[in-house]
Amino acid sequence: MAACGLDFGTSNTTLGVSSAEGPELVALDGDSVTIPSAIFFTPDGLPPSVGRAAIRAYVDGTSGRLMRSLKSVLGSSLINEATQVGRGRVSFRSVIAQFVAITRRRAETATGLSIDAVVHGRPVHFVDGDPEGDRKAEEALQAIAQEVGFRHISFQYEPIAAALDYERQVGDEEIALIADIGGGTSDFSIVRLGPARRKKADRLDDILANDGIRVGGTDFDHYLSIGTAMPLLGFGSGMKREGLPVPSGYYHDLATWSSINRLYERGVMQQLHEVRREAQHPELIERLIHVVEEHGGHRLAIDIEAAKIALADEPKVEVLLHWIERGLAMTVDRGVLVDRTRGLADRIAARIGDCLRDAGLTADAIDAVFLTGGSTRLAHVHAAILGTVPGARVVDGDTFGSVGTGLTIEAANRYGVVAA
User: Fold this and answer.
1) What SS3 class is residue 160?
2) Closest CA to 92 of 121, 64, 66, 70
3) Any idea which architecture 2-171+398-415 has in CATH?
4) Quick check: 334 and 227 in contact, CB under 8 A?
5) What is the pLDDT of residue 346?
């Protein structure tokens, strides 16, 4: 039996296996160990493409349907709903299963192993304040894992997995805050770590607190998009009838990765043409219509995500939108990103405070803070986290690989390693 650790993420996915030499993430997308959690269906019914190939096919204008941020539907009513794919309708649950199945097959091809056991990563909370939603989300992931061929399935919290990765470099016993700011959720654990503790089979007593919040990188994308791109498409403008704004729901769907495809459902285009006729600025609504007609919602979301990532290193970035309208572009300033998403950073910091209280610790008891997940690279998010434990040593983990590596360590502990 070969076992793996699987980090099925909102934005990216990793899978790892362990040998006597230790855990290793498998190359799933060419030479890359990360594969974007994206799947692209063509109308002809051929097998879907995934990862970078899926995004490339979509951006290149291939006829079909791109779906991304699939993990976001777990714990929501959308998981069992069907969406239009080609000439038929497919449930989101089935779409996730196809992506996970392809990921598993690629790992088996790359390693030459038959992988039948998995430690699946999961956020502390799939849904805020909804234990029943959490239970259903985990049950859905377990059923999907069984469906695609895993015979032995277990789960580990993603921040605990990141802690196991970090613990490999810890020389003395310490208390660490693990902060994993992923694409869909932010998760935190406070854990006792150390060389002697690595050998323990049961680490339950070492976990002092776990907490999380449904705030992640896609939420930063949403707020940035609403504040910058959507006004260019008519968001916030008025209708001819005095005091009546253009309906905002279209824009919020367009700015939300998991909701973009709603705009391609039957009847939406007719509604948009009616809005254009009654809008004070029909030329702005025409841009929105063009995006929807061209199924360009994910392309716009990709542009916004790229701008957000660039703003981690640059003070401003130009976003070219000539594919919507000739000459259309916008300059996005880092200050705009911070202003629009400061509330998200504050919510992340507040949840860390809750985690400290649950552990019965003050901030000065934390020896180190281990950071993983793409949004930890945003300066104001980084500062918000460190502001909760100002005296702690800061350790930057593998942005996209720490959770997967930790899950792989956990899989070896639970199921054994592959013989070298």
Assistant:
1) helix
2) 70
3) 2-Layer Sandwich (3.30)
4) no
5) 97
What is the rounded distance in angstroms from the CA atom of residue 173 to the CA atom of residue 196?
8
pLDDT at residue 122, rounded to an integer? 93
What is the Cα gyration radius of the chain? 22
Under 8 Å between Cβ of 408 and 23: yes
Cβ count near 268 (within 10 Å): 14
SS3 call for 277: helix
pTM value is 0.89
For residues 420 and 272, what is the distance between their CA atoms, to the nearest angstrom?
60
For the stretch 237-274, pLDDT in tens is 999 988 899 999 999 999 998 889 889 988 999 999 99
The secondary structure of residue 32, as a DSSP letter, is: B
Domain boundaries, the chain: 2-171+398-415, 218-338
Alpha helices, H only, 62-156: 92-111, 131-147
Between vectors from CA 375 to CA 321 and to CA 51, what angle results, nearest 5°? 65
Residue with tokens 């495809």: 261
